[in-house]
Amino acid sequence: MIKADLHVHTCYSLDCLTPLEQIIERCLELGINCIAVADHNTIDGALKLKEIAPFQVIVAEEVLTPAGEIMGLFLSEEVPRGLSPDDTISRIRSQGGLVAIPHPFGRPLPRNSHALTSPEVLAKVDIIETLNARTPSSSGIARAWRLAREHGKAASAGSDAHTIGEIGRAYVEMPEFEGPDGFLIALAQGRIFGGRSNSLVHFASIWARIRKRVAGNSSGNLPSASAH
């Protein structure tokens, strides 16, 4: 069995300052031996971490669409932000990736965000993130569980860590796997553990955005010096 945190951010996200080496150290401390690195609108950090981590790293991306965020997993190419949900899903599918809806009821979302939980979109989705540790309310988590059950989707969990201390706050214990198809089979056999993080963690993301803007790193894709 492996212990997988399926939603982790690195310093390559606009709202995160966590160096890659610190993520590795923390995972080893906690016994996390699989992570999905899902930075915002980039896979650069995931690709670099995959090269140096002594455990399994799934290259993922949290892609912003006009209707909210869609996560692609097992990516080899970056999916550009701003595309429609259908086009975003098509870009993920075209490279053999899996499609997930992260924190479906855990964030203030655009007016048309219901599109991401519509039957039309969910028919093209593989995974619903049922436990996201940054979801502010237990009711949001319960709604995500119901959504996954009602539509027959695999349930995943992740810390959505933007700081070191959040890593492992939510995770899945699941069998070992190879590739996207093996991942879905293993995930269906997995058990989800964890809970919600303290809401104060969101201030760390705000601070990261401010610090990067002051430093002139508006893209958010460049790591801090300690990440090299």
Q: Can you walk through the features of this model?
A:
The protein has 228 residues and is α/β, with parallel strands linked by helices. It has one domain: Metal-dependent hydrolases (TIM Barrel, Alpha-Beta Barrel). The chain is built from 7 helices and 9 strands; from the N terminus they run βαβαββαβαβαββαβα. The protein has helices spanning 20-30, 44-52, 85-94, 119-122, 138-151, 179-188, 201-214; strands at residues 2-8, 34-40, 56-65, 68-73, 98-101, 127-132, 154-158, 170-174, 191-194. A 9-stranded mixed sheet has the order 7-6-5-4-3-2-1-8-9. α1 links the parallel β1 and β2. The radius of gyration is 16 Å and the shape is globular. Residues 218-228 have low confidence and may be disordered.
